[in-house]
Design goal:
single chain; about 160 residues; mainly alpha; 2 domains; 6 helices; 2 strands; Retrotransposon gag protein
């Protein structure tokens, strides 16, 4: 009967037996008595590892990664779209009023729903801009989520 081992970001071999806790996965791989891993398990492990790397789960604090999901990044603005001039939030005003003004200004210019996410950074400066740049990469998936995070942080 085969044995169970924890899956890692790297396949464990006698030459490579050092791992940090960060690299470990909780998923187990079944290894046969002759040391082979079933193809479907290996494929799933590789796909999961690649997906986590692409989604920026280990982004460097020295580089900027967009805080919104790839789905949002793929959204295209309408042909001929001109970004509206929006007021910048300076951390002194009312954050809820800022959101209302931002949404209405963008809606009047033809920006709605999740397209607002891509424009919101233009309305921030000072500490609120710092907050935005420190959001986890890919963590925002819809406008309502970004709005709630902003209001929660600044109220």
């Amino acid at each position: 009967m085969g044995k169970h081992v924890e899956a890692h970001d790297e396949v464990e071999t006698p030459a490579r037996q050092h791992y940090t806790e960060k690299d470990k996965s909780t998923k187990e791989l079944q290894i046969s008595s002759d040391g082979l891993i079933p193809g479907d398990q290996l494929k799933e492990f590789i796909e999961g590892t690649i997906k986590s790397k692409i989604e920026g789960s280990s982004r460097s604090s020295l580089t900027y990664s967009k805080p919104y999901a790839q789905r949002i990044n793929s959204l295209k603005m309408p042909m001929g779209y001109q970004p509206p001039k929006v007021q910048q939030f300076d951390d002194k005003g009312n954050p809820k009023q800022h959101v209302v003004h931002f949404v209405e200004t963008c809606n009047n210019a033809g920006t709605y729903d999740d397209h607002l996410i891509k424009q919101f950074v233009r309305s921030l400066k000072d500490h609120s801009f710092d907050w935005y740049t420190n959001l986890e990469a890919g963590s925002i998936d819809r406008w309502e989520q970004l709005e709630q995070e902003f209001l929660k942080k600044l109220q």
